[in-house]
Specification:
Elements lengths: L1 H24 L2 E2 L6 E2 L1 H29 L19 H21 L4 H30 L6 H8 L4 H21 L6
Antiparallel strand pairs: 1-2
């Protein structure tokens, strides 16, 4: 009976983080081909709180809902969104909780600084996938003669201050939520 309760808790938290990611899409600052949004805060928090598997499931659900046509992405939704320059970041969302949750489980860090570094590492994975995808779409599909360096500037560098702020908030909140949800283990 205990495992059913744990699975139910995970399902509820997974749905919550899927919904929070969708809400985070509407908390945005439009800049360039990909807006700055609050999504990465919630995605990283999913990795810290519910771990790599369920955190990834929350993001797979989010991306699937958007591709099915629900307007949960920063600029709407639908299958044609795969041609949006920012779609690579949505794919990267799936890996953020995997990296954060996996590293948190492996090292079980007590230090705020180590937790922060792990969150930054997870967030970085989003850019590692998002920037090349953005370049491919802008350069090959849209026909924009953008350089790789310019794509790196508009797809990564501009986001660094916000990502650092989100990582700080995520680390602070995540460290406080984990003891509250300590009964949830998988």
């Amino acid at each position: 009976m205990r495992s059913n309760r744990t699975n139910l808790q995970y399902i509820i938290l997974t749905a919550l983080f899927t919904a929070l990611t969708a809400v985070g899409a509407f908390i945005k600052i439009p800049v360039g081909p990909a807006p700055i949004s609050a999504q990465l805060l919630f995605i990283a928090l999913a990795g810290m709180v519910i771990g790599p598997y369920w955190g990834a499931v929350s993001q797979i659900l989010y991306v699937a809902l958007g591709l099915m046509g629900l307007p949960v992405f920063t600029s709407g939704g639908g299958l044609s969104y795969i041609y949006n320059p920012s779609f690579g970041f949505l794919l990267g969302f799936i890996f953020v909780p995997v990296i954060i949750g996996g590293l948190m489980r492996k090292y079980e860090p007590e230090s705020f600084v180590v937790n922060f570094i792990i969150v930054i590492a997870g967030m970085l994975s989003c850019h590692i996938i998002g920037v090349p995808y953005m370049y491919f779409i802008l350069h090959n599909v849209v026909g924009n003669p953008i350089t790789i360096w310019k794509t790196f500037m508009v797809g990564c560098i501009i986001f660094i201050p916000g990502d650092i702020a989100k990582a700080l908030v995520c680390t602070y909140i995540g460290r406080r939520l984990k003891p509250v949800l300590k009964d949830i283990k998988a």
